[in-house]
Amino acid sequence: MEMSKVNADNRAVIEDLSISFPRPGDEDLLVVEAVSFTVGVGEFVAVVGPSGCGKSTILRVLSGLLSANGGTVLIDGQEVSQTPDHVGFMFQKDALLPWATIDENITIGAELGGVPLEDRPALVASLIDMLGLAGFEKAYPKNLSGGMRQRVSLGRLLAYQPTLMLMDEPFGALDYQTKIRMGRELLRIWEAERRSIIFVTHDIEEAIRLADRIVVFSARPARVAAEYIVNLSRPRNLSEMRGNAEFNRLTHAIWSDLSMPT
Amino acid sequence: MASVDKVTPMPPGRVRLGSIMPLSSVAARRLILFFALVAAWEFTAEFLVNEFWSSRPSEIVMRLFSMLVDGTLWRHTSITVLEAFAGLLLGAVVGTPLGIWLANAPKASETADPFIMGLYGLPRVALAPLFILWFGIGLLSKIMMSFTMVVFVFLLNSREGVRTVDPDLVDLMRSMRAKSLYRARKVLIPAIVPWILASFRLGIGLSLIGAVVGELVGSSRGLGWYIQNAGGMLDTTGVFTGLVVLMVIAMLANQMIALVEARVLRWR
Ligand SMILES: Nc1ncnc2c1ncn2[C@@H]1O[C@H](COP(=O)(O)OP(=O)(O)OP(=O)(O)O)[C@@H](O)[C@H]1O
Ligand SMILES: [Mg+2]
């Protein structure tokens, strides 16, 4: 094993992480095996991997919701034992409070993120506007489409003001155009505030369009199959990108990593 | 083509039916059912069964009126409502926290479960003589009777309510480092409110049973006593009048809960 990659520029360090779940009457289900990767301060890392390989599970460990069976997880150099400060987690499911309006659901993020009371309404209003949810402030989640709920959930995450954002397929329920627009907004916020992001997606093109670096996982148990640095200048224009040799190289490489039999 | 006819969504005649008939409103249909039942009863008493056995609506209305005038209606109704309501409230206040606690203490819950179910399954009306002995023939014994009738409903429902809270919501709160009090306020309590309201709905009838049974066994006031007394004097009209009043109380209380539900559970 090489020397630990811990350095001051790392927001998160995952080293030799392994996670398994007990199964009654059977041996434990090994979900994550010896996974190591880092996320720098202000870095945007995309994670791709086959369904069921353990991506969500790794995020749960990073957010302190689940404890690992082996390895270390450091956030700002601190071992994660309970939920770390200012790490925001956007679940794969929207997890909105059904009894709270859209306004209230987003406000919860601001409240728990320590936004002063008097600043909350303006922050929430601007987020609702940015997410294209104007007019639905007083609606309840049941009256929203899946994609709208996902955007509310994104609003709550942003209102929480996390410096490390764990995003589990955040745009999975959106149509192509909305996905592009939300991605652009996310990049804008990310660039302005130098946040760090771990972004799980099944969309290779989306990963290349957004990320600085892409970590590819193997099928379960998740191992790091490959890591790519995305050498494309920002802002990345989609139509220019498509003709770019680097873009095509990455797409094909990740594609073949994911198609590899295990 | 035959297949084209089949696609027609609804024959035009059927579409119009609902809008022409006053039957389309629930209130109208309920009123019709009510008058039909009353008329059938009145008819039966007139032509089929001697009214000594089952009285008749007109007699009951007259009795109600005279009771209203001489104050006996209020005298008996107020005390029964008070007993039932106090028992219901006490059941909610004791049963709900117990249920929440048991849901969070699986060991304790597991241990106590057979005993809870045993007590729940016990015909608690049989406790009435004991309660008269313990708590006297006054208000307290009846309140305790309705309390024992309803407390399990609140306990079991709130326990089930807590168990069915979406674990993702709790995880989400934890991922934002929400304190347990905040989590209770934002997740736990809103999640069990529907269960508590449902308990109130079920509890209305049960608490009235508790109060009335207590009165039947030993008291000098209340609708239970009035029914008992009327029965002893072969006054079937008195018995039915008491029953009608009890039914109206239950219906009004149920309507009140429905109003609260409509306001509080708008998110559903
Ligand atoms: N609480 C749990 N108990 C037991 N097994 C679990 C639990 N959570 C996840 N698993 C198992 O771990 C594996 C990985 O799950 P995970 O949700 O991390 O996958 P994923 O990579 O996020 O998949 P997807 O892309 O479909 O969201 C799955 O096989 C799942 O069955
Ligand atoms: Mg997942």
UniProtKB/TrEMBL annotation, chain A:
CDD domains: ABC_NrtD_SsuB_transporters. InterPro entries: AAA+_ATPase (IPR003593), ABC_transporter-like_ATP-bd (IPR003439), ABC_transporter-like_CS (IPR017871), ABC_transporter_ATP-bind (IPR050166), P-loop_NTPase (IPR027417). Signal peptide: none annotated. GO terms for molecular function: ATP binding; ATP hydrolysis activity. Residues 14-244 form the ABC transporter domain. Keywords: ATP-binding, Nucleotide-binding, Transport. The keyword Transmembrane does not apply. The keyword Cytoplasm does not apply. Pfam families: ABC_tran (PF00005). Belongs to the ABC transporter superfamily. PANTHER family: ALIPHATIC SULFONATES IMPORT ATP-BINDING PROTEIN SSUB, TAURINE IMPORT ATP-BINDING PROTEIN-RELATED. This is ABC transporter domain-containing protein. It comes from Puniceibacterium antarcticum. The lineage of its organism: Bacteria, Pseudomonadati, Pseudomonadota, Alphaproteobacteria, Rhodobacterales.
From TrEMBL, chain B:
Keywords: Cell membrane, Membrane, Transmembrane, Transmembrane helix, Transport. GO terms for cellular component: plasma membrane. It comes from the Bacteria. It is a multi-pass membrane protein. Residues 77-258 form the ABC transmembrane type-1 domain. Gene3D superfamilies: MetI-like. Its main location: membrane. The chain crosses the membrane at residues 31-53, 73-94, 131-156, 187-213, 239-260. Pfam families: BPD_transp_1. It is found in: Cell membrane. GO terms for biological process: transmembrane transport. Belongs to the binding-protein-dependent transport system permease family. This is ABC transmembrane type-1 domain-containing protein. It comes from Puniceibacterium antarcticum.
